[in-house]
Design the sequence.
């Protein structure tokens, strides 16, 4: 029996539904999963019959970020390149991209959520940058998305301290649009997606492009900066210590190198 695919993609009624499908790993991202996700987003963005794209996770988590247990091949640059493709595809898609935030989103998973145009959240979800705990900086556009949503001071507080942002607080800060309990979550997701699918897609596209031009004026430059410096950090002693601490389930002892 073949293994389950890491990402499920289905298009029905002008909606492409993308599901991260590694529930046993809280949908942590591997090189294979990010490649499939990027291609699915690009294909849906280019398909004129698709009017809405949704992203969610299987099981109890949205996405735990990069799969640290699987390791990062090479210098990490290739993986970051695919994460940048994902961020670019979401932001440039001429149609709404909706995160159906069914559970925790950490690291690159949180960046993925914040790249989306709307976020419908389950009451048990939370967002957490998580990069500082392994000696890294945000990637996948995280520095741009957190800052655009929160402003400089609040973004620095969240990204430097790395504390989880519970979903109620995330809604207060404008990071998510709706929060629902388990009984209402699925129905609320359907209502939001159906409303967008029946809306003025061309007007949505123009509005989205204008808002992104104002809020994210140099996303390509930010992605390039993140890539350059993340690759440097991936080879540093602090990242090695962060990985060791993660594996040994202990606090890291960083030396600033």
Sequence:
């Amino acid at each position: 029996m073949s293994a389950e695919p890491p990402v499920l993609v289905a298009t029905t009624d002008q909606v492409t539904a993308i599901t991260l499908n590694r529930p046993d790993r809280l949908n942590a991202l591997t090189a294979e999963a990010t490649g499939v996700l990027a291609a699915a987003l690009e294909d849906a963005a280019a398909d004129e019959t698709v009017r809405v794209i949704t992203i969610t996770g299987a099981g109890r988590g949205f996405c735990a970020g990069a799969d640290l247990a699987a390791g990062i091949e090479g210098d990490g640059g290739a993986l970051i390149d695919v994460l940048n493709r994902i961020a670019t595809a979401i932001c440039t898609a001429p149609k709404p991209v909706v995160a159906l935030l069914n559970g925790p989103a950490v690291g690159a998973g949180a960046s993925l959520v914040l790249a989306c145009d709307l976020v419908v959240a389950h009451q048990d979800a939370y967002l957490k940058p998580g990069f500082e705990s392994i000696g890294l900086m945000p990637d996948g556009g995280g520095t741009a998305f957190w800052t655009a949503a929160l402003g400089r001071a609040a973004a620095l507080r969240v990204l430097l301290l790395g504390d989880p942002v519970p979903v109620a607080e995330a809604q207060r800060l404008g990071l998510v649009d709706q929060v629902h309990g388990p009984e209402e979550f699925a129905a609320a997701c359907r209502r939001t997606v159906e409303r967008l699918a029946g809306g003025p897609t061309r007007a949505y596209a123009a509005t989205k492009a204008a808002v992104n031009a104002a809020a994210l004026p140099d996303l390509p430059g930010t992605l390039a900066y993140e890539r350059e410096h993340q690759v440097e950090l991936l080879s540093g002693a602090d990242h090695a210590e962060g990985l060791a601490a993660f594996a040994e389930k202990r606090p890291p002892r960083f030396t600033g190198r």
Observations:
- The radius of gyration is 17 Å.
- The domain at 1-180+209-257 is CATH 3.90.226.10 (2-enoyl-CoA Hydratase; Chain A, domain 1).
- The beta strands are 7-12, 15-20, 52-57, 97-101, 105-106, 118-122, 126-128, 165-166, 178-180.
